[in-house]
Amino acid sequence: MSPSSPSSSPTTTSGILSSREAASLQDHNVICDIPDEDERVIFERKTAVRSSKTNWLKLYRYATVWDMVFVCVASFCAIAGGSMIPLTTVIFGELAGNLQLVASDAIGRPKFFQLLNSTVLYSIYLSIGIFILIYAATVGFIYTGDHIASKIRQEYLRAILRQNIGYFDRVGAGELTASITSDINIIQDGVSQKVALTMTSVATFVIAFIIGFTRSWKLTLICSCTVWSIVAVMGYGSRLSIGYKKKSLDASAEGGSFAEEVLSSVRNATAFGTQDKLARQHCSYLAIAEHWGFRFRATLGTMIGILYSFLYLNYGLAFWAGSKFVVNGSATLSDIITIIFAIIMGSASLSQIGPNFQALAAGIAASSKVYATIDRISPLNPTTEVGTRLANVEGKVEFRDIKHIYPSRPDTVVLPGLNLEFPAGKMTALVGASGCGKSSIVGLLERFYEPVAGAILLDGHDITGLNLRWLRQQMALVQQEPVLFSQSIAENIRNGLIGSTFEHEPEQQQQDRIIRAAKLANAHGFISALPEGYNTYIGERGFLLSSGQKQRISIARAVIADPKILLLDEATSALDNKSEAIVQKALDESTKGRTTIVIAHRLSTVKKADRIVVLENGCIVEQGTHKTLLHHRGVYFNFVSAQRFVDHPGEERDEDVLSTASSTLPKKEFRSHDYEFAFEDFDLPELGTGVISVSTRDSRAVVNDKNHRVKQASKMPRRRHKHQEDGNVRYSLWSILKFILSFNIGDALFMSLGLICSIVVGAGQPVQGVLLGKAVVSISLPLSNSSRLRSEIDFWALMYLMLGLVELIAIVAQGVAFAYCSERLIFRAKDRAFRTFLRQDIAFMDEKKNGAGSLTSFLSTEINHLTGISGMTLGALLSSGTTLFAAVCIALAIGWKLALVTMSTIPVVLGCGVLRSWSLRRFDENSKAAYQESANYACENINAMRTVASFTMESKIDQDYHRQIAKQGRTSLKSNLKTSSLYAASQSLIVLCSALAFWYGGTLVGSGEYGLLQFTICFYEIIYGVQTAGAVFSYAPDIGKALNAGSALKNLEDKRPEIDTWSTEGKSVETVKGDIEFRDVHFNYPGRPNVPVLQGLNFTVKSGQYVAIVGASGCGKSTIIAMLERFYNPVSGGVLVDGKDISRLNVNDYRSHLALVSQEPVLYGGTIKENILLGIDSADVSEERLLLACQQANTYDFIMSLPDGFNTECGSKAILLSGGQKQRLAIARALLRNPRILLLDEATSALDSESEKIVQQALDTAAKGRTTIAVAHNLRTVQKADMIYVLENGAVVESGRHDELMALNGVYTELVSLQNLAQPARSN
């Protein structure tokens, strides 16, 4: 078997895309195989992405001067605030010394109480200072973090916008969208509030040890040895964790790119019923991300376990060494207590660095990928001012010895040495088979790519020396698959003015130009009929318009600025024949005096071209005018012959009568004014109604009758779409928590282990409190009893050793268990969210807020937030709860009076934390909405980079994105000022609690009611218990985000779509005969329920028939396909298959008997084999069945001609294939299903004449024995149909076979006459 045979594919459907590392290695190997050195350099420049080495300081590379000023001030406040906290240890040490003195009657009680009051006042002053400093630090870092992240987002988008198109052949739009949301959010964490927390902790640690050195440098030096051990462990662990995090982010980005591809073409997945198969492929990326994510989290857990173990060992070491110094008289009890508590506080602060360091490490890892994109030098940068601008452009274009190879397919030469001239002011048409290099010529002229050899000249100037933005502004491109943006119609057309001399005209003058351009493109009629006219919002990618309407708007956008060079790449392929005739006439007028390059498969559009160039395998085989090429009887003649009509279906005419073919058609003059309003579109929800003007009396009568019936139907109650009734539900806290934790039900063993270990970890501090009290009492023994003092201290030091080892085991086990649970949670939640997206009906996807960018952003960002109530956060909450509970119990048992007084402060601290959590949650809701909008905007434009580049929209997109980001910044600042005050209050109240404990505890000791043991244990247990409770609320942002994300995901899961692919309801369908009936069907789209689309539609299709649906763009043809696929339910009436209403059938069973080939083919990144196999959700597809489907679709030879055969990568969204190649693969995918009902929505629209003829023959053969419904503008493809229905205004106006409809001399006849190439061109 050959290496390229389908069965030899080395990949599986579980892994469509290779990892980023594998892709880079593959690119490197491919480049090395290129023999020519110059070509290797060009290839490397096109695709190379250099890695970016980053550190924490480089995260601030986009900080402004004022940002750095605020960072410096905030850093000073964080350090100063952290430095003030250890001063409480000095106060406590002095208090302990005074307690010893008063107990031994060394000082009197009045003197003691005087010293006690001074101590309390110092504590109050410290509390006030800490509040002010922590508040300023928190506000400063949150503000600068948000501002810097906004700058990074903008710079990242700018970097994307300036990249060459070859870069996007390698990196998917979904991956870039995931980075602009998820990765930059991670960077923001690394430069925001957690930096302030880290600085505060570090300052506390440093000052605590400074205090220790001033009291006893020997003891402090001994204790500091563990610090260096901690630093070594943290350094090595951080290095590992950063590497693991980077690999996890890379895998997540690839998964995001795949998810975006699928969600942007969800109709295709729904039609083929491959949601589960695509979800499994998505899982393959999630599994890789989970693998590296687990290692990242487990490494951090191990680091924290070692850190805590060292701290407990340090306590034992401090008491053991300190006892020696006390005995030999080199230190006092006050010194020892101060040093021990300083070490306790400093070490505790150091331990808090771990969780915050996680954010810093993740930020550094994320910045590596983001900065690599920002730093990439694009070989074709449209934003630079470098290059010449010609004073005058005539429009002469010349290709000299052009050799072109796509970066993604270096072993396939597309243009082997093309020499071609396009005269100024003339129309040149490029025709040829799919993949012959036509679109490559346009891409090279637009400088989407660079040729590896040769030169392209504009008016004698090499275009590589011209300014790229200026060059593109001299051209206007209309692509085969028109790309519009989620703006109004007017804004979409106005995009064509960017960079022109008309860009800054007054708004009214621009509006006049928009209207003139729309009239020129035959779009003004249907636009004016819309309720909001030119201000009508058209949805993401213009999904609220039909293909014909989108193409007309894109034509208006292209001609509005009067470009010097007009590039038309199948500009009228999506138009019906009437619209095409008018638009083509308008284009013929608009092309006069300007250089026009036309790419066409439909040769009726290029008959008037000044020169027609026929390409084959990247070489010119013929050129001349339409007439001369026909007389030449060569390749072009064969193309024309393939596109002509025949007098009778199944009967071929001799080639010599081609020139007189028009005599067989009715001698009816076509008048453009007859159809001025004949193309009003009623196909999609944003469209309005209009009057259809038809040319025959009978047809007009039919339309009037239908209009009357529509008025009657409009009086009927309309069915509300279920998705419109579903709003966002507010869930209780408990229901959200239960929902989030349900993702870990399958991990009960690991979860139980983590929870048990969390309890053990939480009990560590209360046990330490008891050990501390006992050790303090022991070290306070009289020096005369030094042997007992040393003996007891040795015992308690060993207890600390035991505690350290137990906590080490518990924390490491907890970290590993929760790391596993957290990654499983993310895996399952992302998988379920993706499957839930695919479950929703098409009406859900039509909503503006549910664009592919928004949903991809939800997957990459929001789902990760769920770990805020799992993993490390869950362990911290449980540990803190255990600590607080155990501490309170021990304190009450030892000294209930002091315990009760100090416990009164706990509700205050807890209340402050709850308020802060609530505020952060509200802020997160607003922030998420704003960033979701900006992420959706960025995603849409990244997906349309060819259109963006062609119309030089980079600057406009950058400005619009900046406005959205700035708006979010203003919103976040207000919330920041509120939430920061609550956090600062929660920190300063700790010191006030200490002051209260000092005062009351000192009073009890001074009165002789309590001893030193009771005071020490009660003070430590309660104060540090309260401090632990306060530390819990440092997780408030994560908890708030988790609750919001959980609520959003639960809300999504609770939505029950009206057409539910998960439902087992409905009658099962084992076999389908193929009889179809539309019975009085009325339909309007959910987005515009008052605009009728289908208006009492009635027609029948018998089993095995080949039925064609024809008519003007927007008449309802594609809606019929959507109704048959059951993308929507009719408002009234019914769609019946085999006499059964399809709404009563099980939707999955029913769709399994259908296959759809859409007008715009949808393929995914991956190999050709993997894309074809997506036609059926089955793993056991035989090789013979696969080959047969490819042969029937006329794609087998093309596949085998590729170096890798079936294993050839298609690229993101199959960017590496031509339109015709993609369409043939889509047909093969449909035929693989062996459907009983075949739906063809312009299935051959993207094919050249030769391929179209062969594929049409294959489709005719495939249609035998099955019911086929074909929507077509190209009437040649349906002239052999058993029945042709002509639609206007959502109703049938004519029906019959081709010859019967021709005999009527009505609407269909005129459509045919417009399209027949054999008809001589009429004079103007």
TrEMBL record:
Transmembrane segments: 59-85, 120-143, 195-213, 219-237, 294-313, 325-344, 739-763, 795-820, 874-894, 900-918, 982-1000, 1012-1036
UniProt xrefs under CDD domains: ABC_6TM_Pgp_ABCB1_D1_like (cd18577), ABC_6TM_Pgp_ABCB1_D2_like (cd18578), ABC_MTABC3_MDL1_MDL2 (cd03249)
InterPro entries xref list: AAA+_ATPase (IPR003593), ABC1_TM_dom (IPR011527), ABC1_TM_sf (IPR036640), ABC_transporter-like_ATP-bd (IPR003439), ABC_transporter-like_CS (IPR017871), P-loop_NTPase (IPR027417), Type_1_exporter (IPR039421)
Domain ABC transmembrane type-1, residue spans: 73-362, 753-1041
Record keyword Membrane present: yes
One record GO biological process: oligopeptide export from mitochondrion
GO terms of molecular function: ABC-type oligopeptide transporter activity; ATP binding; ATP hydrolysis activity
Parts forming coiled coils: none
Membrane topology qualifier: Multi-pass membrane protein
Compartments in which it is found: Membrane
Keywords linked to the UniProt accession: ATP-binding, Membrane, Nucleotide-binding, Transmembrane, Transmembrane helix, Transport
Domain ABC transporter: 397-642, 1076-1314
SUPFAM superfamilies xref list: ABC transporter transmembrane region (SSF90123), P-loop containing nucleoside triphosphate hydrolases (SSF52540)
GO cellular component, one term: mitochondrial inner membrane
Family statement drawn from the similarity comment of this UniProt entry: Belongs to the ABC transporter superfamily. ABCB family. Multidrug resistance exporter (TC 3.A.1.201) subfamily.
Name this polypeptide is given: Multidrug resistance protein MDR
